[in-house]
UniProtKB/TrEMBL annotation, chain A:
Domain of life: Bacteria
Provenance organism: Nitrosomonas communis
Main location: membrane
GO cellular component: plasma membrane
Protein name: Putative ABC transport system permease protein
Keywords noted in UniProt: Cell membrane, Membrane, Transmembrane, Transmembrane helix
GO MF: transmembrane transporter activity
Cellular compartments annotated: Cell membrane
Residues that span the membrane, as ranges: 21-42, 275-300, 328-350, 362-383
Family membership noted in the UniProt record: Belongs to the ABC-4 integral membrane protein family.
TrEMBL record, chain B:
Domain ABC transporter: 2-223
Pfam families: ABC_tran
PANTHER family per the UniProt record, alphabetical: ABC TRANSPORTER ABCH.1 (PTHR24220:SF86), IMPORT ATP-BINDING PROTEIN (PTHR24220)
GO cellular component: membrane protein complex; plasma membrane
Source taxonomy: Bacteria, Pseudomonadati, Pseudomonadota, Betaproteobacteria, Nitrosomonadales
Family (UniProt): Belongs to the ABC transporter superfamily. Macrolide exporter (TC 3.A.1.122) family.
Gene Ontology terms describing biological process: response to antibiotic
Molecular-function GO terms, alphabetical: ATP binding; ATP hydrolysis activity; transmembrane transporter activity
Protein name: Putative ABC transport system ATP-binding protein
Signal peptide limits: none
Organism: Nitrosomonas communis
UniProt keywords, alphabetically: Antibiotic resistance, ATP-binding, Cell membrane, Membrane, Nucleotide-binding, Transmembrane, Transmembrane helix, Transport
Xref: SUPFAM superfamilies: P-loop containing nucleoside triphosphate hydrolases
Amino acid sequence: MKLQDIFLFSFKTVKSYPTRSFLIILAMALGVAAVVVLTALGDGARRFVIHRFSSIGTNLIIVLPGRAETAGSFPGASMGQTPRDLTLEDARWLGQLHQIRRYAPLNVGTAELAAVGRLRDVTILGSTGDLLPIRHMELAQGSFLAHGAQYSAQIVLGAELAEEFFPEGNAIGQRVRLADRRFIVSGVLARQGETMGFNSDEIVIIPIDHAQALLDTTSLFRILVEVRNRNDISSAKQAIRELMVQRHDGEEDVTIITQDAVLATFDRIFRALTLGVAGIAAISLAVAGILIMNVMLVAVSQRTDEIGLLKAIGAPGSDIRRLFLTEAAWLSLTGAIFGFMLGHVGSLLIRLAYPQLPAWPPVWASLASIVIALVTGILAGLLPAARAARLDPVKALSGR
Amino acid sequence: MIQLTAITRIFHMGEQEIRALDHIDLAIASGEYVSIMGTSGSGKSTLLNVIGVLDRPDSGRYQLDGSDVTDLTETEQARVRREKIGFVFQSFHLVPRLTAAENIELPLILAGIPPAERKIRIEKALHAFDLSKRAQHRPAELSGGQRQRVAIARATILRPTALLADEPTGNLDHRTGVEVVALLEELHHAGTTLIVVTHDRELGLRAHRRIAMRDGLIVADEQ
C-alpha cells in the first residue's frame, strides 16, 4: 500500500466517524490550547515585569555600602570592623570614571512635611539633579537644582503631594517645612505611579546636603550610576570596585548591583514559572493521548471484521498497523492544529482584555505543544495498531 | 495449480482437540470448478481458508502455482492472497462506511495501483457487474444481491487465478442466489478456477468436481 493511500484512507476513516473524531480532536485541541495560553500568560507576565524594571533606568549600576557575603559570615566581623560608610566624596570620585555618564548619590528617609496648615509624613529622597534622568523621572512643572545650586533649599514634590497640599496647581515657589527646615518648592514630578512597590507620586526630593543634614548622617544609602554605554557595564563595575577598594584602604566593602543582573534574575524566575505552567498544561496532552489510545482500542474491536477482510484481500499486517497509526496521527495532528489556533485566539483575547499584559505565546511553546501532541497521539496509536496488525484474519472474519 | 500434501489443521477448544483437517491430500488444476460440501464442522471452511493462504496448516505442504507457500512470512502470504486469490464470503464482508465503488477499489489500493488506473478499472468492474447506478451507495443501501455483486467485483478486480466462495448464496433468497451463481460460473467460463464451499446440495452438484468432507477428511471426490 502506497504511503499517500495510507494517509488518504485513514483520513477518510477519521471523517466517517464524525462524533468520535470531533470529541478526540476537541480533547487534544484543548490540551494544546491550554499550553499555548498558559505559556502566553507566563511569558506575558515576564515581559511585563522586565519592562517595568527597564523603566527604572537602563545602563544602571547601584553601589551599596557593606559587602553582601555569600560565605555566611557577617561583613567585616572577622576583622573586627564594621563596614565603612559610603560618602559623598566617594560618589564624586566615582563620577570621574570615564565610563560613567552621570551619577546620583542617594539618601532616603522619612520626615513630616508641613505647608498651608497641613501635615503629612513623606518619604524623602536626597540627591542631585542627575537623579531624575537616571531614574527616568520627569518634572511636570518647574525645575530641580537647575542652576547647579547644590546648596539652595529647593524641594521637588511628588504629583500626589503637590495636589494634596496645593490643589490649585500653584505649588511652585511656595514655602514648605520639612521636619524643622524650610524649603521652597522648585518643581513637581510628573505622575508615574508605582514602580517596584515605590510610589514616586508620594515622595519629595531635596538636595543631598540638606538631606544628610536633616537625617543627620554622612553615609549614603546608595549611589546610582549610569554608564555611557551598555557594553561598558562590566568594565565600569570593575573600575568602581577598584576605586572603592583603593579609597577604603584596600577593603572591599561595597556591593555593586547591576540592573542587568536584577533583570536576568527576574527573567530566569519567570521563565521557570512559564515552563512550570506549560508542564502542568502538558499533562492534559497526556490525558488526550490516553483518550486516543482508548478510542483506537475500541476502534480495533469495532472494526475486527474490516481488518479481517483487508487481510483476506491481501493487506499485510504492516499496512494495517500503518493505517491505525496514521489514523491516530490524524486525530492528534488535527487536534493540535485546532488547539494552536484556539490558543492563539485565546491569547489575543487576553491581550485585548488586559492591554498592559503582552501575552504573546512563545514560539517554542507552540511548536513544542504541537510536536508533543503528535508524538503522544502516535505513541497512543502504537498499542492499538499492533493489536490490529496481529489479528488472526480467520477469527476476525468469522466474528469470533 | 493447487497441491495440498498431508495438510493437518488442529483447533483447540478448551481441553478438546479438533482436527479440522486431517492429513488432506488434494490437487486442483487450473480452471477447475470444484465444490466442497459437508456439514457444519466438517472442515470445509478451514480447507478453503488454507487454500486461500488465510490460515496456516499445522503440518503438511501447500504448493500454489508451483511454489511452496507453506512457510512464507505473513507479508509474503498477504501478497499471494492479493495476487492470486479472490474471496467471496457468505456475509459479503463489505466495509460499511465505504461506497460500493470504494469497496471495489480496496484491492487496487492495497496493490499500490495509481489512482488514475484505479478509476478506469473500477468503472469497468461496475459496468461488468451492473452496478454503475449503485457506485456511490453504501452497503446498507444495497440489496443482498447487489452486495454480493460488489463483493465479487472486489474479489475479481485484480484478476486472481482462483476464486474462493464460502457459502456465496447463504444469505440470499433463492432467485438472487441463482443470479449470483450464474455470475460466478460466468467468471469460471472466462478461465478462473472456482472453488465453492456449500452445504446446499443443489449448488454443490452444479460443480464439475464435487468433494465431500466429514470430520476433517475427504470422503468423496467425484468428477
